[in-house]
Amino acid sequence: MSQLILGMVIFFGAHSVSIVVPRWRDAMAARLGAQAWRGVYSLVSIAGFVLMLRGYAAAQVLPDVVYTPPPALRHLTGLLMLPVFPLLLAAYLPGRIKAWVKHPMLLATQAWALAHLLANGAMPDVYLFGGFLVWATADRISVTRRPARPIAGAPPTRFNDAIAVIGGLVLYAVVVGWAHVRLFGVSPI
Asked: What pTM was estimated for this model as a whole?
């Protein structure tokens, strides 16, 4: 469990620099240069992510159960997951969805984490998905109070929303019907 927690601290720490110390982040990016800052940020994030995944897998071997969700919540989980992939794509495909939601990736992260908390009650699940839910909520609150940074993505077109929705639903079908069981050993259906 300690590897999971260390990975979460590193991963969320890197992703929280703009929340906690935005001036320091801007100063470091200016001092190192944008590309070098992105490189350091990416390496730290990847290291945290790998530790988090390895720690989660190790903690799943003999997990303590915090709560046992009723089987009916699996249907709610599936429903909450439906908008996740379209929202993730909308973050990089500027259109009406992105304009309306403002921060589609953070909303997708919140929906993903909440959905997984409804279906999983072991201690590693509570740490992992609860951590993502708390972090995404804090970042959504924080992002309204700091200047927006541009996110690289596709140019705005009238088709971006359709691409995000159709592509996201295709990704959802692939993950639910095939990839989830192969990647994580658990069938969501």
From this structure: 0.88
